[in-house]
Amino acid sequence: MKDTVDILVERLGGLAPRLAIVLGSGLGKLADGLAKPVRVPYADLPGFPQSGVTGHAGELVAGYFDGIPVVMLAGRAHYYEHGNAAAMRPALEVLAGIGVVALILTNAAGSLRTDMPPGSVMLIEDHINYSGANPLIGEQREARFVGMSEAYDRELRQTLEQAAGKAGETLHKGVYMWFSGPSFETPAEIRMARILGADAVGMSTVPEVILARFLGLRVAACSVVTNLAAGMATGELSHEETKDMAPVGGAKLARVLTQFVRDSAAEI
Fold first, then answer.
1. Among the options 1, 81, 84, 133, which is catalytic?
2. 57-92 pLDDT tens trace
3. What pLDDT is attached to residue 54?
4. Annotated active-site residue in 20, 31, 51, 56
5. Catalytic residue among 20, 25, 85, 200
């Protein structure tokens, strides 16, 4: 990991971001708003994941938002691509290694609530790891026993809510349930998820939250709703629907995150 940190520090040329954002589906263009951008393909960073999902660029982009240094990961590796829940560990370790202290995760998700239709944005308050996988399986140090009672940083969530208000965007709140994918959930599984207290379902983010907390990073996360979950609308779910709808909610979340960066500069 040290070699990759050294490579990235050299490529950043003195840029020292303390905030990192993982860009999920529909948010890739957010990186285009950075001033003085430095773009580094994942392929140039040993250990970084190679995502095989369309819509995930596979590059690290660093730069400035209103003079505030930020680093963004445009693309992630998913558990369903290789069966490795810890695939994002090297990337997150490198972020921590260059001085990042706070991580904002974004994703595309299916809604379990009719009052949160496609195009909505949800602030994740907590999660349910339904997949049963954990990125810390095999870790030998005692630090593997990570407390998750406050996995999603309360102050970061409050700042995101305030940023949404300033940006004039509705930010729903709820619980995200992680399914392994890549197949979509069945209507029966969605009924179960609702009973268990989930508000949205998706195929990412939870492993990264666990890893980030293990590494001592503060974490917040938001979902862009791309569809109503299985059994809640007519027709079959598809990845094409996800790609088509992600930019709608993605544009809203981009406005919230832009305001969030401005508001959180002193806090982070």
1. 81
2. 689 999 998 889 999 999 899 999 999 999 999 999
3. 53
4. 56
5. 25
232 a catalytic residue = no
* Cα 268 from Cα 166, distance rounded (Å): 19
* Residue 25 annotated among the catalytic residues of the structure: yes
> What is the number of domains present in the chain?
1
Residue range 226-243, pLDDT digits in tens: 999 988 876 676 767 677
Domain, as residue range, for 113:
2-264
Average pLDDT over residues 88-109: 97
Active site annotation includes 81: yes
Check which CATH number belongs to the domain holding 215 and give it.
3.40.50.1580
d(CA 261, CA 259): 5
Q: CA torsion, points 128, 131, 136, 142, in degrees to nearest 10?
A: 50
Catalytic residue check, 254: no
Question: Which residue reads 């709140």 in tokens?
Answer: 173
User: For residue 223, which phi and psi values (nearest 5 degrees)?
Assistant: -110, 135
Could you tell me the pLDDT band of residue 52, with boundaries at 50, 70 and 90? low
Query: What pTM was estimated for this model as a whole?
Result: 0.94
Active site residue 204: yes
From 51, 120, 204, 264, the catalytic residue = 204
Catalytic (active site) residue 127: no
